[in-house]
Write a structure and sequence with these properties.
alpha+beta, homodimer, 20 strands, 7-stranded mixed beta sheet, 5-stranded antiparallel beta sheet
Amino acid sequence: MSTYLRETLFRSDRLEVLCCSWSMGSVSKPHDHGLSTCAVVVQEGLFENTLLGATPETTLFEAGSVIVTPARIAHSLQCVSEKGKTIHFYSPPLRAEPEQGVRNFRPLPIAEIRDASVRIQQSGMDFSELEDAFRVIESRSVTTASPYFMNQLFSGYHPEAVLAEQFLSTHKTTLATYEASPALTAIEQEVTSQLGTLVGWKRSEGISVPGGSSANFMALHLARHFRNASTKDDGNGAGEYAIFVSDQAHYSLKKAAVVLGFGVKSIVPVQTDAAGRMITSDLEKQFAAAKERGAKPLAVCATSGTTVLGAFDPIAEIAKVCAENKAWLHVDAAWGGPILFSPAHRNLMAGIELADSFTFDGHKFFGASLTSSFLVNRHSGLLRAANDVSGTEYLFHDDDGIDLGRMSWQCGKKSDALSFWAIWKRRGTDGLRQLVETHYRTRDEVLEYVRTQPRLRLAHQPEFLNLCVYVDPPPGAAPDPQYSRKIREALIRDNIAMVNYSVDREGGSFLRLIFAHPDLQSKHCIGILEAALSTTFS
Amino acid sequence: MSTYLRETLFRSDRLEVLCCSWSMGSVSKPHDHGLSTCAVVVQEGLFENTLLGATPETTLFEAGSVIVTPARIAHSLQCVSEKGKTIHFYSPPLRAEPEQGVRNFRPLPIAEIRDASVRIQQSGMDFSELEDAFRVIESRSVTTASPYFMNQLFSGYHPEAVLAEQFLSTHKTTLATYEASPALTAIEQEVTSQLGTLVGWKRSEGISVPGGSSANFMALHLARHFRNASTKDDGNGAGEYAIFVSDQAHYSLKKAAVVLGFGVKSIVPVQTDAAGRMITSDLEKQFAAAKERGAKPLAVCATSGTTVLGAFDPIAEIAKVCAENKAWLHVDAAWGGPILFSPAHRNLMAGIELADSFTFDGHKFFGASLTSSFLVNRHSGLLRAANDVSGTEYLFHDDDGIDLGRMSWQCGKKSDALSFWAIWKRRGTDGLRQLVETHYRTRDEVLEYVRTQPRLRLAHQPEFLNLCVYVDPPPGAAPDPQYSRKIREALIRDNIAMVNYSVDREGGSFLRLIFAHPDLQSKHCIGILEAALSTTFS
């Protein structure tokens, strides 16, 4: 197969132009352009373009023709004249395939970053100079688009989310009122109502909030209003509140207690078992103790998918304790919520329909833009009752209940729902199920590899898409409880991967692999672990 | 001058392809492509391309050449052969010039919008079908990019912000930790530290928050911690708090009081004068009354640029009252803050350096993306002291003070600073001053027009970029205090403009023109007012 020559004529963040020279029979391998739209102008010669798919289709193009191939559509181009010349336009520019891509995980010290590319000056610059500054920013940013980025509970992004953000950047509007955002209000309602349906509620309501932490804040705020609506006018009043969370729950619940004026002391930690799940008998004990000391039990926050171990608290059992104690049950499913899409795994959240509210993040496993978080609750009207105040007549002119701002803490409010909606709309509910199940399969492949490696020890039997693994020092070396953390630092230093670590109850560290990147394959994870095992410290 | 023929070959949200046929001497008018990058392939003939600027430059291009013109660069193309053919690529597609653009201000009922284009189904779709759905969403969205959109305290957008959002959509990372966002952390610090310098503080700290409302929430939370740090552990405790705000202040302060557990009653309204400014003598009275009834005076929130009238509370006078009463002084400058850039107008905020904190929105007047809000305060270390909790070791590994998440209520946190930074970086501090002063001049031109029209009455003598105007019914018609509101509805119904209204103390309505769109000219505003005057109701 003869080849063809490629030359880059122009490249910016928005457009890439290539020129290709061909000879008879030279052909491009079947390929798609990721999220780029590709347009080819035939300058010279005759070409056959084959669109791949269920029924491949070949069309002949002569000089002067323009061939447009939309994003994510695979094709192959062949020169069928003696020679040929084509000009290729990609918008946005082609991104490198993940495994070939740049990996930059080693941050420079901030003093080195705060240079002229960051500093704002008295006088301005050309747009192209700003684009140059963005290229510097890019070179100093962590490659979060790479499957080797596993530091957070998200990795990579979906092209649907990119489309959504492009839309919002030129269709800037606030979700506060229906009149300024009719279509986007309908989209937010669609997402929150589908999420309510997903957990089995016939009636529910929800709102997008700026992150999973904010969703947890809102849940406790709703619980307060539900218990005693007079707090809205009068404040918390005297006395101690009690909010029960597992000792593995997310720190945002403590922050919520501070912000809402309950204080950190109102957070009552409940013991967990070795797998990181709340122990219901200890929850009952804590309720009794709280009542004995005269505290006001407000809510239990169960976690579906804890941050470190990916553990699922037993919701159905906890719901029983809540019902007996008339406490609000909130489920923080920011990370674990995606299993609701999988009939094979959703039993981990059995009893979710008995909860009062839950947190769901579209930007974690499902790859929506930061942030795409939702608080959904089953008491219709409560969001507005707890949050609406007077003095908003300048903004909310009608009383028809569609203005999302009245249910929110925000006034100017971006459409956080749009990127998750775009992913869900494009893939369908079936597609989201597949995404969950594919990642479970990848996890199992990696688990199998781990079991073959004597120097890798599981920190837990994973229930979800966290895989926590101790890396032990090589045979003969002294035991070192911090060895895994040192491995993590070496992986970052060598730009191999950015994997987070955590510590066990004895303070020993382990690596936490997260299965979230849309294109993640077991080879990426095994590659990281192989690099970990071959690391040497001099 | 002979003309040329244009034919659209392809158009998507990301790429537009045109084909142009030329004859000898035909020439394109000098034009730029807004925020599009333009690439032209010469297919046939000979062309002269002139790049306009301080020293225009002309270059000859023959068949096979590619001419790339970056965003916002003006040029002119002329055919110098008998005939010619060019293919033009625009990425993103050309947007219509504001005055020629679509104006869609009339929302459909939500029941009509919730159709197949919005509904999420079990099965997925092609990417191109999703793009089709986005086109439907676009057709049902309000044209906020038009200068005839004046409904909110923002309008339109800057291309720099579009660039920033494109960057973030493919470089998705969280601002919580430095290790995951080194460059973006430096950028956030640059913006908040420049804002601190702008008000005259030698030392300060700041954080991006999801909207101006959230900035006000954070300010009151800091005030609580500053007054009594034990509230962090113990909660608000018994007793009534008092927070003093003018009767024209933003409703978010009430919401903040609810959320923070103080209750709406803690918000003490202070009287304003006819121009909407807080009356300091009444503030003193309210302080005395609060103390008398045993309340705990916590803070005063002054407003720089009220929502309806654009009034500026007298900060220096208020600061004196705060100092005497040891109360925190917060300034909500979400809308009015831009005058800090203008030596000619910043006296309206005289005394700002005496405040403890202020709110600044980059997404309002300055056209950054929604949301780009900041809370800046002059007590370095307070944000972290008030917000950091334990149990975050899994995320924050170092104690070097750069992890913005420890100063925040958010965990996963988008770079809200980037779009405002891009605008400020590109235009420089001088450019932002010019933007403020240009809009003041536009306002004055419109003011002059209003004074010539007997049926237009000023609701106030404007201090800032709000212009509140009563439209009176035609001569001979019955007086109607709601006439302006009806005019507003007619302007929306006829897709002429979306201008908000508000009401005076007697309940009479007036239109509120907002000078914020980057390309706003007096002709747009006068056009709206002319349409208002020529409206008839049958």
